[in-house]
């Protein structure tokens, strides 16, 4: 778990270095997207930990059918979660970043048109 967190942090640190070479606006855009990205990653980690606990409990009780069903439900919940978060993100991306304090100059770097950055 600690290794995973260190990997995520080093990944962001390296990204920040290379994006800083593009200028201040792309770097500001990355700093605004971090809380949103962190929230999505936290939800995924929470779902994974919860799924592991439920499946481990079923396997500990020698109930293979329940473990398979729990795994299926976890995949279904994650698919629904991805769909809902994608729609929310697509529809509300500008209001979310405006509430976070993003300026109009950084908004193009955070939109789908800013994917080139």
From TrEMBL:
Membrane topology field: Multi-pass membrane protein
Membrane spanning residue stretches: 12-34, 72-93
Annotated GO MF terms: antiporter activity; xenobiotic transmembrane transporter activity
Keywords annotated in UniProt: Cell membrane, Membrane, Transmembrane, Transmembrane helix, Transport
Protein's cellular compartments: Cell membrane
One Pfam family this sequence matches: MatE
One GO CC annotation: plasma membrane
Secretion signal, residue range per the UniProt entry: none
InterPro entries attached to this UniProt entry: MATE_fam (IPR002528), Membrane_Transporter-Flippase (IPR052031)
Chief place of localization: membrane
Protein name, per record: MATE family efflux transporter
Source organism (scientific name): Pseudoalteromonas rubra
């Amino acid at each position: 778990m600690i290794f995973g967190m260190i990997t995520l942090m080093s990944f962001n640190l390296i990204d920040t270095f290379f994006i800083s070479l593009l200028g201040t606006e792309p770097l500001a855009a990355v700093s605004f997207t971090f809380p949103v990205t962190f929230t999505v990653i936290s939800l995924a980690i929470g779902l994974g930990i919860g799924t592991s606990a439920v499946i481990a409990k079923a396997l500990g009780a020698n109930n293979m059918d329940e473990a398979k069903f729990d795994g299926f439900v976890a995949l279904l919940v994650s698919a629904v979660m991805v769909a809902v978060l994608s729609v929310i993100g697509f529809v509300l991306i500008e209001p979310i970043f405006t509430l976070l304090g993003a300026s109009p100059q950084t908004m193009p770097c955070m939109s789908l048109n800013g994917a080139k950055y």
